[in-house]
């Protein structure tokens, strides 16, 4: 008789993985979560205090950064990346993350690796104030190779309808504030992996592989705090497509973002990649270049907001301004 285990799916290992995962998920659960992990559906109560609440959702994955995690056998940070990619996106519309669900797929499930991934997801949820209320772990022998893992997830947040940030008020003369990234974040790794084959080579006294696994910065808490005091007209999460694709996404028609490339010190990792043969144009169309999140604000709030961000522990810079025109983005 053939069994599911003979076919490559170890149910007992799955049970052990869920047991370990639950310990991390518990750390994120708030009073609005109405049931526990293991039910057929996760339940989350809409918070009180909203007159006309709007739910904002976003989904993303970690991408080929997972290949570096696999080669270094280090899986405890990529879950942070998974959360960050979604919560930073919904934050761009002013949404406070409520909850998160993850999806892990693999060829052969190892409970400890899956638990390490969820450990990172849990940390990402804590950093963003979200509850990890459910997920799915799929063991798919013959579809994924043994040792391969894929990680994705989605976040749901909430914003008062009258306070949705959609860029419609952005006007000529507004200022662009860039907030420092923690590194490459989670985009462009197919290119990075073409350029860097030896993950143990030295980079400023550290192994380059460890640098490449630095998790994506989560901007939720400082930005939500900033929104309590200041009007933010538009926000952009700098992900795949870099400056060139993502900054125009927050702009209304007929407006252009002028970016001053020398307005801040670009982290050395991006200069290093350029020295390996990537053009500057390609870099700005692929990577965050040291700026992970961009705000568009009234010019009279510039100094106050920069000080507020510094007080919140963020490195931020005026990186440009808005002008009229159809170019959408201009790098100077």
Automatic annotation (TrEMBL):
This protein's UniProt keywords: ATP-binding, Cytoplasm, Ligase, Nucleotide-binding, Purine biosynthesis
Family annotation (CDD domains): PurM
InterPro entries for this protein: PurM-like_C_dom, PurM-like_C_sf, PurM-like_N, PurM-like_N_sf, PurM_cligase
GO cellular component: cytosol
One Pfam family named in its UniProt record: AIRS_C
GO BP term, example: adenine biosynthetic process
Family from the record: Belongs to the AIR synthase family.
Protein's name in the database: Phosphoribosylformylglycinamidine cyclo-ligase
């Amino acid at each position: 008789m053939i069994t599911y285990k003979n076919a490559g799916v170890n149910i007992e290992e799955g049970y052990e993985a869920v047991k370990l995962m639950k310990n991390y998920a518990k750390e994120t659960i708030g009073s609005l979560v109405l049931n526990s992990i293991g039910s057929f559906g996760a339940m989350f109560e809409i918070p009180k205090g909203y007159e006309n609440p709007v739910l904002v959702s976003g989904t993303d994955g970690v991408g080929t950064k997972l290949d570096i995690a696999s080669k270094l056998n280090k899986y405890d940070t990529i879950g942070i990346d998974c959360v960050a990619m979604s919560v930073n996106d919904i934050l761009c519309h002013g949404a406070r993350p409520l909850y998160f669900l993850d999806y892990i797929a693999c060829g052969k499930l190892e409970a400890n690796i899956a638990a390490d991934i969820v450990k990172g997801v849990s940390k990402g949820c804590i950093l963003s104030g979200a509850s990890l209320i459910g997920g799915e772990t799929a063991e798919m022998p013959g579809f994924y190779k043994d040792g391969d893992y894929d990680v994705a997830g989605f976040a749901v947040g909430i914003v008062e309808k009258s306070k949705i940030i959609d860029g419609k008020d952005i006007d000529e003369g507004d200022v662009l504030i860039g907030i420092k990234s923690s590194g490459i974040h989670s985009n462009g790794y197919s290119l990075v992996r073409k350029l860097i084959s030896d993950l143990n080579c030295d980079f400023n006294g550290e192994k380059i592989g460890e640098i490449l696994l630095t998790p994506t910065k989560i901007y939720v808490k400082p930005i939500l705090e900033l929104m309590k005091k200041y009007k933010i007209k538009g926000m952009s999460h700098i992900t795949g497509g870099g400056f060139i694709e993502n900054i125009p996404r927050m702009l209304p028609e007929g407006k252009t973002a002028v970016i001053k490339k020398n307005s801040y010190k670009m982290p050395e990792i991006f200069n290093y990649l350029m020295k390996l043969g990537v053009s500057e144009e390609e870099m700005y169309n692929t990577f965050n270049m040291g700026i992970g999140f961009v705000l568009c604000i009234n010019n009279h709030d510039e100094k106050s907001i920069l000080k507020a961000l510094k007080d919140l522990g963020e490195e931020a810079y005026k990186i440009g301004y808005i002008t009229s025109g159809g170019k959408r983005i201009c790098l100077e």
